[in-house]
Design a protein that fits this description.
7 helices; elongated
Length: 227
């Protein structure tokens, strides 16, 4: 059995994994093919007939044995080529999504500070925004104190380079291990006013002497929401 016997460029998205396994087996007997793959004949038959989903170990052995493309085997179409993947990396930047929630309310604790995933943003769009891909992160807002500007569950793109306060800009800040997203304003005496866009929430003023307890994580430069 070899890769040349199966057309991996063909779009087989309308068929199931079982049918693609059968195509890889070709004219070999089910007994012989099952033996090569380390499973029983009955197990292989159930895989081919769609009565049971093959596990990852079986699929990996099948790909190695037949030279099969994993994308074709699982999805019915060939996975992106190396050149295509390289092109995608040039076109898109993968920005880390952190598993922390910044509160647009009364404060959220920091549960973890390791990325839980990555979100793709077009590099040309980031450049237009004056952003460096390696210096931006994505977090999620919780609460309603920044409505209507930022709503509960919105995704926030944060530029961690911008930590110097610009009046009337929105920042992610940390106070006493709590994360907030707020609008900040520098006052004439060096103090900082923390404002909420929702008028139901009162502003807070941090005196200049206490600014060491206020850490600016970065400026919010984009907000995306689920409708």
């Amino acid at each position: 059995m070899n890769k040349g016997s199966v057309d991996f460029d063909k779009d087989d998205t309308q068929t199931g994994v079982g049918e693609r396994i059968r195509r890889l087996r070709g004219r070999q007997s089910r007994d012989q093919f099952a033996s090569l793959l380390g499973v029983s004949r009955n197990t292989l038959m159930r895989y081919e007939q769609g009565e049971r989903q093959p596990d990852a170990d079986f699929l990996a052995r099948l790909c190695r044995l037949c030279g099969a493309d994993p994308g074709w085997l699982l999805l019915g179409r060939e996975a992106a080529s190396t050149a295509e993947r390289s092109g995608l990396r040039e076109e898109f930047a993968l920005v880390p999504l952190y598993g922390v929630e910044v509160s647009a309310g009364f404060g959220a604790t920091i549960d973890q500070e390791q990325p839980i995933s990555r979100l793709a943003y077009r590099r040309d769009w980031l450049t237009e925004m004056g952003l460096q891909p390696e210096r931006v992160v994505t977090v999620q807002a919780r609460g309603d104190s920044m409505e209507p500007t930022i709503g509960d569950g919105d995704l926030l793109l944060v530029d961690t380079r911008q930590r110097q306060l610009v009046n009337d800009a929105i920042y992610v800040i940390r106070q006493d291990q709590l994360l907030y997203v707020k609008r900040l304003q520098r006052l004439y005496d060096g103090a900082v006013r923390i404002n909420s866009d929702n008028p139901a929430y009162a502003a807070e003023v941090v005196p200049k002497k206490d600014l060491a307890f206020l850490e600016v994580i970065g400026r919010v430069v984009w907000c995306g929401r689920r409708l």
